[in-house]
Amino acid sequence: MVNPWLAMEAGADPVERTRTVRRAHAAFLADPTVAPPVRQVVADSWRRSADARAAYDGAAPIELDESALRTYREGHPLARAMPVFRELLGSFAQDGAHLLAVCDPQGRLLWVEGHRGVRRNAERMNFVVGARWDERHAGTNAPGTALAADHAVQIFAAEHYNRQVQRWTCAAAPLHDPRTGRLLGAVDITGGDHLASPHSLALVQATARAAEAHLASGAPESGVFLTALGRDEALLVVDGERLRLGRRHSEILVLLARHPEGLTGDQLSLLLYGEREMRPVTLRAELSRLRQLVGALLHSRPYRLSRPVETDLGTVEEQLAAADPRSALGAYPGPLLPLSEAPGVRRLRDALADRMRCALLAAGDPELLREWSRTPWGEDDLEIFEALVGALPERSPARAAPRATADRLRAAYGLTGGKGPAPAAVRAATSAQPRPL
Predict the structure, then answer these.
(1) What is the rounded CA–CA span in Å between residue 424 and residue 147?
(2) I need a labelling partner for 193 at 20 to 30 A (CA). Which of 175, 220, 320, 340 fits?
(3) Distances (CA, A) of 372 to 55, 360, 412
(4) What is the pTM of this model?
(5) For the chain, first and last CA: distance in Å?
(6) Residue 173's closest CA among 132, 207, 217?
(7) DSSP assignment of 344-373, as one string?
(8) CATH topology of domain 224-311
(9) DSSP code, position 154
(10) Is 121 strand, coil or helix?
(11) Model pLDDT, residue 194
């Protein structure tokens, strides 16, 4: 079976592959259809990039200046893993004219090291520390696509969405917190076409596993943790063992974790299905399948979890309660189970998003407001953009872009005058609504 995450099968002609993929890329920009031989993972990434209106011919934005970068990466969990990255990939990058890069979950490059000449060339497309290389801002690329797919991947030459990046080939693998399963970022090697081999993909995968093992050596493995923010399928970690859940099972565990005292069948059914008439056997069948996956963790009469379960939802709530919006925003990768229509989940999702927005508006920190405004759930948030304009110095040129966006949003919502707070109805309409990630 051909590995879909590899850029090219053995014996493929890289010149011919580049030519055919470039033609497919040009056709896609004109008409959103993808023709062979474009891989499915690349086609999916092109569509996500197009939906996010990523630039197809421009440089990635730089979001962290030198001062902010230094403080941020000193406290980042992956700082502990840098010796592993340098030991396993450092000499490979230096000797082979490649770059070693490590990014955070938002795709911001925290470390870029390697061959000096290659670094100078990469600077022309802003492949530098502090730049944002997620798909939304840089299009299809190995670190950004590895984060989006949560899987190691190679991206070869013309497979990149952005034309400025199509002379490069890269391979990247995501990294997770060994205790909670939370996505920490990705490790990447970038260079020429010769990286399009099984060896480079295997190397970054092995490096990611070694780094996670290194992080685990200083972290307790016991406990149960549920990660459900910014993902449609929750990740359950039980004593170091990871289990990806289906969407309905994700909803059930989120609700049970929220109610440690337990829920009756009727209560759980109401939170899952609302007022729709559902036969009790439907819920019992779902719970039976879930019990086969999690075993003794799930008890019944009432339905409850047999062990305390930490959740990323609870972590963000604790940071908000402690009046620490910066930490809360850093731990908030997106809405709770974004595609879930379960009434109980929707209430939790909307309540958390509202608390987050209120905390950011109260803090009035332009850096935090700007970060929220750059997310899919904050890009149309009128109140956030107006707060950002007000938080910046009167003569700052940085006010121009958020002011223009605020004016556009006010016009879109039929508001005139350009001043004053948005009415409550508009604030509700532009609040952080969950979107597919």
Answers:
(1) 36
(2) 175
(3) 20, 9, 20
(4) 0.83
(5) 29
(6) 207
(7) HHHHHHHHHHHHHHHHHHHH--HHHHHHHH
(8) Arc Repressor Mutant, subunit A (1.10.10)
(9) E
(10) helix
(11) 83
